[in-house]
Amino acid sequence: MITVNDEKIPWQEGMTVRELLESLPHEHDYAVVRVNDKYVSKPHFEEYQIPDNADIYLIPMVVGG
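^ thats the sequence. predicted structure below, dont judge the formating
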């Protein structure tokens, strides 16, 4: 199990940040995802593997002006 924004979801071995985001029901664009205490930026989503029992916080991209 992993925790994503305080919600428990199933974990799969080899799961990447990109795979996690694609499995979520909502479609937001995230610039950065915090996995435990490490910040992972969008260019690394495809390669960064999420460990079991990770605490993940999704940081949405904010646009304004």
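DSSP finds one helix and five strands in the chain.
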